[in-house]
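Continuing from yesterday's entry. The apo prediction looked reasonable, so today I'm repeating it with magnesium ion included to see how the binding region is handled. Same sequence as before; SMILES copied from the compound registry.
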Amino acid sequence: MRLAICSSKGGVGKTTTAANLVAVLAECGRTLAVDADPQESLGRSFGVVAGSVDSLAGLLDPEGEGDSDTAIRREVLPGLDVLPAHPSLERVGTSLALQGGLTTSLRRALRPLQDRYDHIVIDTHGDNGNLTLASVAAADAMITVFTSDPGSALGAVRTASFLNKHRDFENSSADLLGAVCSNWDASGATAREVAGALAGTDLVVFDTRIPYSRRVPAGTLAKRPVVLGAPNSRVAEAYRELTDEVLTRYAKAKQLAS
Ligand SMILES: Nc1ncnc2c1ncn2[C@@H]1O[C@H](COP(=O)(O)OP(=O)(O)O)[C@@H](O)[C@H]1O
Ligand SMILES: [Mg+2]
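Holo prediction written out below.
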């Protein structure tokens, strides 16, 4: 599976979802976590900090000297490699867009690595911009994330249309597996309203909801995702259930497509 995690809004829980998903996926298959957000938060979730050359920025830069051997950090956890970002990825993206190679850049960079991994998970910036398009073009599946905030639910709907548009343009063949509600405040009236509003759209929402938990930011500080740092917590359990659901929906989507 090559999974892109996208939303048109930042701060909804994409990076946290990516970090926990890859930690679980790595337990049963070779996994590569790709940080395609110049804010470089996914790498930092595992304590990986890169420079402009030994990162995705260096790997994608047509004028650069980066290569996958220096950019990829091996065995950050057993079974997990990390391809970190760097703020210069923003500039590399702009330069590739001017030259016309941006959309396919990540797909081309990952192609020679694909056979080494059972799963590749790509974390993106909270927008529907160029690097997000490159991520979706490199993926064969996508999930979007929203919270109990109504604005983020609208963002999830917009992200679904973004993918549909680029499937029509043949920039991507990724299947939208569904929308994850994260940071979920089950007792709040707003959360119920948001869930109700989404039920009236054709966006598929995952059954698993990720609850709000103070253990999540604590895990980020400790550079250890909550599924590893507090494995028996409710939020860790939810991330494990979500991983199962993502794999099941991915298998179904591919079965339907064949
Ligand atoms: N389930 C959760 N419970 C509590 N805080 C969360 C949860 N998920 C994410 N957060 C916090 O919300 C903030 C944004 O999350 P992040 O994953 O960085 O979002 P994004 O990548 O979409 O910008 C972070 O401070 C993170 O620790
Ligand atoms: Mg993020």
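Comparison notes:
- The pocket of magnesium ion (ligand 2) is lined by residues 14-15, 37, 41 (CB under 6 Å).
- The chain has a mean pLDDT of 94.
Will overlay with the apo model tomorrow.
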